[in-house]
Amino acid sequence: MRKVKFAAALMAGILALSVLAGCGGGRNETSAAETTKTAEEGSTGTPETLKTGAAMRVGSLKGPTSMGLVNLMKDAEKGSTANSYEFRMETQADTLLAAMAGGDLDAALIPANVAAVLYQKTQGQISVLNINTLGVLYIITGNSDIQSIEDLKGRTLYLTGKGTTPDYVIRYLLRESGVDISDVTLEYKSEAAEVAAILKENPDAAGLLPQPFATVACAQNESLKPVLDLTEVWENLQQGKGSRLVTGVTVVRNEFLQENPDSVRSFMEDCRVSAEAAQKDVKGTAGLVAEAGIIEKEAVAEKALPYCSIVYIDGTEMKEALSGYLQVLYDQNPQSVGGNMPGDGFYYMAETK
Fold this sequence. Notes:
Blueprint: H1 2-23, H2 29-34, E1 56-61, H3 64-67, H4 70-78, E2 85-90, H5 93-101, E3 107-111, H6 112-121, E4 126-134, E5 137-141, E6 156-160, H7 165-176, E7 185-189, H8 192-201, E8 206-210, H9 213-220, E9 225-229, H10 230-238, E10 246-253, H11 254-259, H12 261-280, H13 282-291, H14 298-304, E11 310-313, H15 315-332
Parallel strand pairs: 1-2, 1-3, 6-7, 6-8
Antiparallel strand pairs: 3-10, 4-10, 4-11, 5-8, 5-9
Region (Disordered): 28-50
Pfam families: NMT1
Signal peptide: 1-21
């Protein structure tokens, strides 16, 4: 009965997310921030029994969140993890949520605000385990006159997803930097590839692009470069308030968590180790990223990885960073986080070593 209720609530959440994305007049934020090309589905074979509990099925989005997971995928393939896993990658968050609704996934790496919406729509039947990716948004241009957010005044900025997180983030940063939004023309495109194409033809233009699109755009035209890391801009404006620009989080079904606490703790530790490997062994991780089909060329993956803000943050630091970020979104549009700020039950406060 609990699974039926969860599935019904989760499907309602998926519909709500689709409607919210549709109101933005473009593709949903997952596409804007994470899609590269068509995703290849991960292993779907029958999992082995976990040494610490039940088999764990994990879904992720093709992009930076999966890039931080590839070392774990490789370790699991070699049988060197305490848990055994099944992994699958998708290009759309909706697909992952539907898989959870059908009982085909136990955990998923999804956009932070999507997790908040899902928490509301399922009446608290999921928990956030960690932050896996901080900000991946960059201002790209060949115009040397643009060195700060204030320098966007009087200019056109090309970006994707009106009414989605990139839009909310840039509006917040403009306002906090003292720039009237009416002084910047925000021109929205349906896909990041469109923005990249504009910049390739006109390097003096300015575009807001996520990784790895930002790295790809710069590779296509040597005149282009990332002039502003919005994660750094955000943190400079916060002045130690705890809020951080968050892209992706890892969520788990509470039913699975309650039945398999040791498996979940092992999973958290595995995620931490995988993220640290992505930070320290960029070349080796880039090879795995290309092997997984996340980015086609290993050389591009190697260039993009240091800019993808792959992290592992849990416990109190996770709660402070994520709640502050969600508050910024809520203040602009409450529906972007499900209508209400999530309560304390949203955050699984266990910490890895």
